[in-house]
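Structure ticket #2291
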Amino acid sequence: MFRKTLLATALAAAVPASLANETPSDQPTVMEETVVVGVRQRLYERGALLDAIQKTEVVDESLIKSLQAVNLTDAIEKSPGVRVSNECSMCGVKRIMLNGMRGEHSTILTDGVPLHTMMAGYYAVDALATTGVSRIEVARGAGASLLAPEAIGGTINVISKEIEETGLNINASMEDNDSYFLGMMGGYVSDDERTRTSLVIQDDKHHQMDNDDNGVSEAPLQENTSYVVRLSHDLGERDNVVLRTAYTDSSIFGGPQGYSIGSVLQVYDGVESDHLFVDDDVRQQYIGKPWETTEWISTTRSEISSSWLHEFSESYNTLFTVAWSEHKQDSFYEGFDYTATDTLNYFDLRNNLILNDQHMLTFGVDLRDESMRSDSVSGEESDNYIEDSFDYQTTGLYIQDTWTLSPDLEVALAIRVDNAKADFVAEQKPGTEIDETVVAPRIDLRYLHDDQWTSRVALGRGYRAPYPFSKQITAFLMPVMALPSRSKTLKNLYPQLMH
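Resolution: structure written out below.
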């Protein structure tokens, strides 16, 4: 929030000179404080700017600190209806499941923008830093997000912290097992408080753990480094521009104790051992070759997003968003190598129109263009291997009516129409596998019983984009086709879990 202190002045042209002369010379000067609010915050406070999701729980900054949460999964895993599934103890695959639905039905947003590619939902979830995060909004159930038709299970929206003053904040911790955490956030606010810039750096390491001392880890070594630069600038009284860029580097190594990926590859021979454990019992000492249990995943993710908010009038505003992200992976799964690059381009033009005291329309169009290319040297040597590279495009139209029937009752009626195209480009899969138009209606109803009790009912239909791979025991990656999905939700919410 922008703040200025102005001196109250008398307008001589509007006051007779005789009356002005009667003012006591020793009368104290009146100080008046005028609050100048940024464009986005002003529209939010007036209810003219729609939230990205219909949030049901909020993990705010104070709760993140009290939980000592280093990453996203640490911060939300204790939230109602949230399950963080550790699907591979050695390779670190984690899926976030909302309302009991599979992880591909959950969508992660950054400041309301779907920046995460399909691959990003499998690896580097633990690399999503909490430094510089104001709050994490969790929306469970159907109708959670107007922008994510696949989010039948729900949506997680990570909100960046808005800089309030120029300064630097550093947090650090260290454990005996060589694990550590370092988080730094620096901010700058211009003299007129219309420009705010922040730099966030987080570096953390989690030690490899072998609790049963059999020579194979139950939890992998994880090393994560994140950089985020964000700029918010009010161009005038009706325009705001936000620029954000981020880079994340994550490395996971699980399996044999006392090795690195370099030392494992040096002794790799491709010949399997007759026995992996003494007496073929996993509770006994590991006697196999290091590469036979090695799970190594190196991930980098780059993100750039920009949004322009323009207020045409008190009842109408437009938000235009452009975003790009690239997710790169280099990995080794017990002798199976896999590299991939997943690139996402996203555009959204959203309009908010207040019709009257009861109705607010949100309508717009968005475009998602994602392309993933993968390669595997060992996979190419197998007759059963099918490359999982794909092209995926969606173009969607959406409209929502937020209907406030009373101060206690609100209904959001929404519908999306999407054209989805998915093409797995391997030679064994000729043609375009998916080219369909999907209509996805949603309804979200909230009723405030009192200050201690809120109820929510949601019903929705959507579709699941073809997630390109799911890791099998053999480490081969298999494409999965799109399926229509429906979800309904009925829950009671308590204010201590909401903001």
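Closing remark: The chain has a mean pLDDT of 81.
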